[in-house]
Amino acid sequence: MHSGIKNPVVKIIFYAILVIWGFSVLYPLLWTLLDALKDNEQFFFNAPWALPEVPLIWSNFSYVWSKYNFDRYFINSIVVTGGSTLLGLLLSAMTAYVLARYKFRGSGALYLLYISSMMVPFILALIPLFFLMNSLGLINTTIGLVFVYASSVLAFGIFVLVGFFKSLPKELEEASIIDGASHYGTFFRVMLPLSQPGLITVGIVNVLNIWNEYIVGTILINDPKHYTLPVEIGVMQAEMQYRTEWGPLFAALLMTIVPVLVIYIVFQRKIASGITAGAVK
Amino acid sequence: MKPVSEKRQRNLFIGTFIIPTFVFFCIFTIYPVVQALYYSLFDWSGMSEHKTFIGLGNFKDMFKDPIVLRAIGNDYFLVVGKIVGIMIIATFFAVALTRFKFKLAGFFRSIFFIPNVISVVVIGVLWNFIYNPQIGFLNAFLSLFTEEKVDIAWLGFTSHTIWMLLPPAVWAGIGFYMILIIAAIQNIPDSFYEAAELEGAGQWRQFRSITVPLVWEQMKVSIINIMMTTLNGSFVIVWIMTEGGPDNSTQVMGSYLYQMAFRQYHFGFAAAIGVLILGLSLITTVVMQRLLRHETVELS
């Protein structure tokens, strides 16, 4: 029935635009990989698009890994991202469930408070947050970063999960209550497993955002021991003015990109549904 | 079980599920925001306990500070540039990948979203490399067409350098909004298009009479979303690529806030910039909602 585009010339032009844009997206990834295998000399004397010369400088990776302590930053990023995603997910699921299923005084206002907080620029809170964390002794700690990130994803999680819980049939809970289960038991044993698709969607979107987060990390962490990957990338880039180690820089970029890329490839559909749900405020 | 104790159990349950989240949220989100409003009324270096209450003094100083004015200008430049750039390209891709029946549409859709899963820091570093005067892509590419080697410092112009920050910002934003518009287009019943096709309406006609009016709501949300995320968050890419330089010419409100607070220790003044960002983004949202509603009426 659908003919799509009829004019072959227009069709070719449109196709070309798609291909060019696709190239502009994929090529930076490819060149990050290729440039991670070059030494400085090649950066200065060969064209930027030239292939790396043989022998490939695989040692850039091990150099970044051990000399720049990327082993540590990688673990820090995993711990911070995992910890804050799980904590944020638990806290938002609990509140979302109650807001979706229980009527009580102030429930509407509470929901509104969470949702409207998404409108407030995060940078506004940055300065007081710094002093708050300082007085709590949470500057330069992993747990401090976990708390702040977990708190920053609450609103989004509550928003999406309230919608999700509302879409689940009520009969299951009622049956569980009749069977004598407590409210807690019903939540943890019946509702939480049922809401897995929603939890995964929210969780994946949060993982991507937290893994990539830079500015809060930079402000709350200034001890290299606790750097996350984006924070270290920022530091490396700033240092690049004084010491030129382009190959290692690209190796570092690649190590930061690959985990999110893998997550994206695996959970593509979840991510698309997550962002669509979150953007219709 | 007596009804009273059941009610109590229910309330206890509600409490234990609501309160931890709420306390957490209050400490790490609400409290800092309220504090920021409070700090904005003080002259405070942050390092000492000593704060001087100066009322709206910071706000008065702000409008005398040419850098703040330039930052506001740059912010709105990015807002407009990103809205135009992202919306046109994202809408085109969304339509092309749904209505034009291209082969590989799914593949294109997947890869177009990739920039959105990459950290802004990484994107900033990659584009810095494109612009690098000695070894960057752009100069190397231009050198192919010239006798002498091109060595333009793309991020070093004293004016208009902000233009250089627009391509990375647009490039990084397309995929997200494309996905949103695709979702909206897919909600349009196929029968609408089939009927139009029977009437002999071409793609352009279908786009104007069916697609745009029916996804307008989503486009409106997208436009406002671009505006808000730009005012609230564009400073990260600015900070990575130029740190607001050269000579403060690419400063946006967020980057100037960051510099004032964590480089120059004018915490009160910086907090006031934060309040300005909040105020401007709320006002702009209201204004835009008005403007865009008006346009819907015209279209329908």
Automatic annotation (TrEMBL), chain A:
Gene Ontology CC: plasma membrane
Spans through the membrane: 12-34, 73-99, 111-131, 143-165, 246-267
PROSITE patterns reported in the protein's UniProt record: ABC_TM1
Subcellular location: Cell membrane
Top-rank taxon: Bacteria
Keywords from the named record: Cell membrane, Membrane, Transmembrane, Transmembrane helix, Transport
An annotated GO BP: transmembrane transport
Record-annotated ABC transmembrane type-1 domain positions: 74-267
Primary location recorded for the protein, binned into one broad class: membrane
Gene3D superfamilies: MetI-like
SUPFAM superfamilies linked to this entry: MetI-like (SSF161098)
Topology in membrane: Multi-pass membrane protein
Record InterPro entries: MetI-like, MetI-like_sf
Protein family per UniProt: Belongs to the binding-protein-dependent transport system permease family.
PANTHER family: ABC TRANSPORTER PERMEASE PROTEIN MG189-RELATED, ABC TRANSPORTER PERMEASE PROTEIN MG189-RELATED-RELATED
Listed name of the protein: Carbohydrate ABC transporter permease
Taxonomic lineage: Bacteria, Bacillati, Bacillota, Bacilli, Bacillales
Automatic annotation (TrEMBL), chain B:
Stated family: Belongs to the binding-protein-dependent transport system permease family.
Name assigned to this protein: Sugar ABC transporter permease
Membrane topology: Multi-pass membrane protein
One Pfam family cited in the UniProt record for this chain: BPD_transp_1
Subcellular location: Cell membrane
InterPro entries recorded: ABC_transporter_permease (IPR051393), MetI-like (IPR000515), MetI-like_sf (IPR035906)
Gene Ontology CC, one term: plasma membrane
